[in-house]
Amino acid sequence: MAGKGSRYVPDRGLTARMVTTMFLIGLLYVVFVGVLLATLRDSWPVIVAIAGGLFVVQFWFSDRIAAFSMGAREVTPEQQPELHGAVDRICALADMPKPRVAIAESDVPNAFATGRNQKSAMVCATTGLLRRLEPEELEGVLAHELSHVAHRDVAVMTIASFLGVLAGTMTRIALWGGFGRPGNSRDSNTAIAMLVIPLVSAVVYVISFLLTRLLSRYRELSADRAAALLTGRPSALASALTKVTGQMARIPTRDLRKAEPFNAFWFAPAFSSKESLSRLFSSHPTLEQRLDQLGRISAQLGRP
Fold first, then answer.
1. Owning domain of residue 72
2. Residues pairing with 100 in the sheet
3. 174, 180, 264, 265: which has the fewest C-beta neighbours closer than 10 Å?
């Protein structure tokens, strides 16, 4: 589902996965709140108010919270002319509105995009990425990130990834608010809730985690494909991928640990594992998978 007027190739597989993920995430949220209401009947007004408030905050502000957490700082064309110039060229090529442009002061070479829609979108590159990439490689990375905005999968990921946080927050508030008053009948309710709520919260977190990981791996391949076809230079994107992944090994582990919680948003993961079990929980496909796809696209574009 590419944005209106965008020249990015549509991806029906991505659209189907986004719709399914949002439906299941929404269902999980409703079930979780329902369990809280059933377990803590006396506190239902507080639970409903908090659930509604957190949902509004999640929808309207989660992208800003994510950008702030990753250290994004908006910059003007005068401050970062090369970055703005690259974004301008990609936006002109894709025929889409220009997002806000930001940088993050980090030696970890990476980039990400956030935003509920094209009007509120932001694309951010780290200073480490800007220092290491050639202009064509940088454009490939930015085309990848802007495809997330055009396909709207960045909004789905931003909203969906906060369900685990919400589940934990709701649990703490419900337990704290529900057990604040003494009473004989409350003693038995407390014992039940102490068992049920943490268990349900854990299940909600695990399911939402797996759903977002499955969507994240597919959307990265989709963004690579869309960027390569838009720019017509899959080799530049492949070069950027190889360079960024290779440079990660030279970054201090301390800096990588800071970036790791936001792996699902980054162009490339801070840590990647070749173990098959670990790959099941990875936010990104392997480098080999991404390069293999770009190689096939390059061969297709080279055909008469």
1. 12-301
2. 122
3. 180
Q: Is residue 145 among the annotated active site residues?
A: yes
Instruction: Identify the CA nearest to 264 among candidates 214, 224, 202, 201.
Output: 214
Whether 212 contacts 66, CB under 8 Å = no
Model pLDDT for residues 208-242, shown as the tens digit of each residue = 888 888 899 999 999 999 999 999 999 999 999 99
Specify whether the CB–CB gap between 193 and 40 falls below 8 A.
Answer: yes
CA 146 to chain centre: 13
Structural tokens at position 31: 């079930």
- pLDDT over 50 (residue 182): no
Q: Which residues are annotated as a binding site for Zn(2+)?
A: 144, 148, 220
Per-position DSSP letters for 74-109, written without gaps between them: E--TTT-HHHHHHHHHHHHHHT-PPPEEEEE--SS-
The answer to whether position 135 is within a domain reads yes
Residue 5 belongs to a domain: no
Q: Select which of 78, 145, 275, 288 is catalytic.
A: 145
Name the DSSP letter for residue 10.
P
**Residue 6 maps to a domain:** no
d(CA 95, CA 98) in angstroms, rounded, equals: 9
What's the one-letter identity of residue 107? D
Residue 1 lies in a domain: no
